[in-house]
Amino acid sequence: MIRIKNSALTLAFSCLFLGTALFVSCGGDAGKSDQTIESETPAAESVAADTGKAKSDGKKTIPEDWKQASWDKFKFWIPADWKRESGTDVWFPPTESFAMGLPNTSLHCGAMPIMGDSVDEQVKQMLHGSALSKTPVDKCNLKGHIREARDDYGLRHLTLTLEEGGVMTVVNFFNCRAPAGQYDEYEEIFRKILDSVHCN
Fold first, then answer.
1. Structural domain boundaries of the chain?
2. What phi-psi label fits residue 67: left (phi over 0), alpha (psi between -120 and 50 degrees) or beta?
3. Cα distance between residue 50 and residue 44, in whole Å
4. pLDDT digits over 153-173, tens only?
5. Which residues contact residue 114 at a Cβ distance below 8 angstroms, ignoring those fewer than 6 apart?
6. What share of the chain is helix, strand, coil (3-state, %, to 5)?
7. Per-residue DSSP letter, 193
């Protein structure tokens, strides 16, 4: 009887010891594993990583205080304080107003079918003036140009045009404009906007 009790007691003690060791071992590893994961990807770095992704467009660096906008199948970046007029494809700085129609300083997006005239002639009519320069570009597998122009109303334009072929040629345009006297202060912004245009 005494032997049986001692064996049972030894067995119980062994089980208790093994169970405790197993619990401490697993619990310790689990805690350590969680801490390691947390230290490898802290919340701040996650947010920074997301922001970094959001602010890059391929090899281009987008200013931190800009936001993404879209029109049709295209996306692009604009200054964060620019606003879009409801029901239109026009964006403009907070100093401008849509009360009198298209603001003098603005970005206007759209598409126009080419009918009868050449692309250059129809773009000239849209801009109400002759191009000062025309630089070839290729975006979204579409051929196009960056055009600088001065119109008949005292405004200067920096415009991206992208041509889509088919039964009828359609020109997608991203027209940035500002009064000639203020153009220099907006030119860098306009170039960054047009440079950031990419496909959805």
1. 2-40, 56-199
2. beta
3. 10
4. 999 999 999 999 878 999 999
5. 122, 168, 169, 170, 171
6. 40, 35, 25
7. H
- Contact 64/180 with Cβ under 8 angstroms? no
How confident is the model at residue 129, as a pLDDT? 87
**CATH (residue range 56-199):** 3.40.1000.10
Q: What is the pLDDT of residues 58-69, one digit of tens each?
A: 556 778 889 999
pLDDT higher at 134 or 26: 134
Cα 109 from Cα 122, distance rounded (Å): 16
The pLDDT of residue 131 is 80
Neighbours of 99 (CB within 10 A): 6
The reported pTM is 0.70
Sheet containing 155-164: give its strands across. 83-84, 90-92, 106-113, 170-179, 155-164, 142-150, 131-139
170, two tokens: 């359609």
- Residue 10 in this model has a pLDDT that exceeds 60: no
Place of tokens 């203020």: 182
Q: Strand (E) positions, the chain?
A: 56-57, 60-61, 66-71, 74-79, 83-84, 90-92, 106-113, 131-139, 142-150, 155-164, 170-179, 198-199
Cα angle at 66 between 171 and 162, to 5 degrees?
10
Please state, in angstroms and as integers, the Cα–Cα distance from residue 113 to each residue in 26, 110, 167, 171, following that order: 69, 10, 10, 6
